[in-house]
Design goal:
This protein is of the alpha+beta class. The strands form 5 sheets. The protein has a 6-stranded mixed sheet. A 6-stranded antiparallel β-barrel has the order 14-17-16-15-18-19. Strands 5-6-7-4-8 form a 5-stranded antiparallel sheet, covered by helices on one side. Helix 2 crosses helix 8 and helix 5 runs antiparallel to helix 6. The longest helix has 15 residues. The termini are far apart.
C-alpha cells in the first residue's frame, strides 16, 4: 500500500492526537470544578508551550506531575468559547507512541480490547488496554497510518507504565514490533463549531497541502502531511482537530491560532467539556481494578472474532456471572455541586460518583456514576453531599453534544 502524501518510504512518522488526557489530579481541597495542587514543585514536567502559557497569564497548576494551565482568566468563558466558537488546549503532555514492524497489527490485536482489523488507513480506533484481570491499564486511541505503521496516543501519567507493559507483551508473546515513544512532538487540540475552519486558515499559511487535508477529514480520520499529523478527534463533544507537530514549532502555531480568534483554554474547561460530553477520565472513571464493562465502555470491547486479547477471559467470566454495575449520568435536583467519590444511595444498593462538576451549559451540577444493576434512567437517587442527602435524577449521557443539551 503506498504511503500517504507527504510521507516517503523510510520517513519517520510525525503523527498526533488523542481523545482523552486521563491523569488523576492531586486532590487537596475544593476548587471550582477540579482538584489541583496550588504549588508547582520544581520537579514538574513542562510542555513546549510552557513559556507561551506564562506570557498569556495562565494560572499554572500541578496536574499529574505536569505544570499545566488551569485557565487564562475565566474557566466559564473558555468553556463557552468551545461550545460557541473555538478554543484550543495544550495536550502535549500526552505521549505519542509509534509502532512499526511486520508484527504491529498482531501485537495490537493482542494488546487491545477493541480490534484494529476494523481500521482502514487514516482511521482511528478508541480502545482500552487491559490487564489479565480485565482492569483498565489505560484508554487510548490508535491510528493506522499505512501498512505496518500505527500510532498510539496514551495518557500522560500512565505513559511510562503503558510503554513498559507494551514491551512486556511484545517480549512475552514474541511479536516483532518496534515501540517508539515520540517525546520530541507537541500536540494542540482545537475544538468547537468553528474550529476546523479557523485551523484551516492558520495552517494554510504554513502548509497548503496540510490545510487541504483538513477539508477532507471525516470524523475519527487522520492525515499525515509533511511534519503535520492532523486528526479529527477530540475530548469535548464538539467538532475539531488534534494537531501533532515538532515541539519547537508549537508556539508559532499557538500564536497564529490566537491571532485568528481561537480562545486559549485550560484544563478546567477541558474537564467540564468532557464531562458534559460523557467522556471518561482515566484515574477517576476507570482504573486497573474496574473493567470496561462497568465503565460504560462495553462498546469498545470486540468479542466477535476468536481473538485472544489480554483480559478477554476475565471479561467473559464477568459477563457470565451477570449483575454488572451500570455507568449512568446524574443531574442534581437540589442545591450543591456533585464531585467524584460521593456515595449514591439507590433502591438497589449503594453506588458512587466517579466524576462530577458544575455544567456551564446546563447551569446545574452533573456527574457520572457507577451504580448497581436495576437502576434505571428516570429514577431519583440520593447523593451524599458532605453528609447530607441530595436528590439527583438518573439520566443518559452525554449531557451535551455539539452545543446542544441532551438532558
Amino acid at each position: 500500500m503506498p504511503a500517504p502524501k507527504g510521507q516517503q518510504a523510510g520517513y519517520r512518522l510525525k503523527l498526533s492526537g488523542k481523545r482523552t488526557e486521563g491523569c488523576e489530579p492531586t486532590r487537596v481541597g475544593p476548587r471550582p470544578f477540579l482538584f489541583f495542587a496550588d504549588e508547582c514543585p520544581m520537579s514538574l514536567k513542562r510542555t513546549p508551550l510552557y513559556a507561551t502559557h506564562l506570557a498569556a497569564g495562565a494560572k499554572m497548576v500541578d496536574f499529574g506531575g505536569w505544570e499545566m494551565p488551569l485557565h487564562y482568566g475565566s474557566q466559564i468563558e473558555e468553556h463557552h468559547a468551545v461550545r460557541r466558537k473555538a478554543g484550543m488546549f495544550d495536550v502535549s503532555h500526552m505521549r505519542v507512541v509509534d509502532l512499526d514492524g511486520a508484527g504491529s497489527r498482531d501485537f495490537l490485536r493482542v494488546l487491545l480490547a477493541n480490534d484494529v482489523l476494523k481500521l482502514t488507513p487514516g482511521k482511528a480506533l478508541y480502545s482500552c488496554m487491559l490487564n489479565e484481570a480485565g482492569g483498565v491499564i489505560d484508554d487510548l486511541i490508535v491510528y493506522w497510518i499505512h501498512t505496518d505503521h500505527y500510532r498510539v496516543v496514551v495518557n500522560a501519567t500512565t505513559a511510562e507504565k503503558d510503554i513498559a507493559w507494551m514491551h512486556k507483551v511484545a517480549h512475552d508473546r514474541r511479536i516483532p514490533v518496534a515501540i517508539l515513544p515520540r517525546r520530541e512532538l507537541a500536540m494542540v487540540a482545537v475544538q468547537g463549531p468553528q474550529a476546523r475552519a479557523l485551523l484551516r486558515e492558520v495552517i494554510e499559511g504554513l502548509d497548503g497541502d496540510a490545510a487541504a487535508a483538513i477539508d477532507r477529514l471525516k470524523p475519527f480520520g487522520a492525515a499525515v502531511v509533511d511534519e503535520f499529523f492532523i486528526a479529527r478527534t477530540g475530548y469535548t463533544g464538539e467538532d475539531g482537530c488534534e494537531v501533532v507537530l515538532p515541539a519547537d514549532e508549537a508556539p508559532d502555531l499557538w500564536e497564529r491560532l490566537v491571532a485568528e480568534g481561537v480562545a486559549q483554554c485550560g484544563l478546567g474547561a477541558r474537564d467540564t467539556l468532557r464531562l458534559e460530553a460523557g467522556m471518561a477520565l482515566y484515574g477517576q472513571d476507570m482504573h486497573e481494578t474496574v473493567t470496561p464493562l462497568e465503565t460504560g465502555l462495553a462498546w469498545t470491547v470486540d468479542f466477535k472474532e476468536s481473538r485472544d486479547f489480554i483480559g478477554r477471559a476475565a471479561l467473559e467470566k464477568q459477563l457470565a456471572a451477570g449483575n454488572l454495575r451500570q455507568f449512568v449520568g446524574l443531574k442534581l435536583l437540589d442545591k450543591g455541586v456533585l464531585r467524584w467519590h460521593q456515595k449514591v444511595a439507590t433502591a438497589h444498593g449503594e453506588g458512587e460518583t466517579t466524576s462530577g462538576t458544575y455544567s456551564p451549559t446546563l447551569e446545574c451540577s452533573i456527574a457520572l456514576a457507577r451504580v448497581p444493576a436495576g437502576v434505571k434512567v428516570g429514577d431519583t437517587v440520593q447523593v451524599d453531599l458532605r453528609g447530607k442527602p441530595a436528590n439527583a435524577l438518573v439520566t443518559k449521557y452525554p449531557f451535551v453534544r455539539n452545543g446542544k443539551a441532551l438532558v
